[in-house]
Design brief:
Distance between the termini: 40 Å
Number of strands: 0
Strand content: under 5%
Shape: globular
Helix content: 55-70%
Length: 72
């Protein structure tokens, strides 16, 4: 069903949802360390979280957090 809808596979789809949720956590909890955001997002391996985040958003989680905080 996922492949028919254009998604690559279940893992990629789930990681995408986890990363989207991590953006919400960064906004709600700017004081949390990246490791806690990763864990709460369902990606407890920090290096995997950094890699997936950069692949999806083109920037590191820390850079995203800093940019978001400057906009407020």
């Amino acid at each position: 069903m996922l492949k028919e809808g254009g998604a690559v596979n279940l893992t990629t789809y789930m990681n995408g949802l986890r990363l989207e949720y991590s953006l919400e956590l960064f906004k709600k909890h700017p004081d949390w360390p990246v490791s806690k955001i990763a864990e709460q997002s369902g990606i407890p391996n920090l290096s995997t979280f950094y890699r997936l985040f950069k692949e999806k958003y083109g920037t590191s989680p820390n850079f995203f957090r800093n940019q978001f905080q400057e906009q407020e």
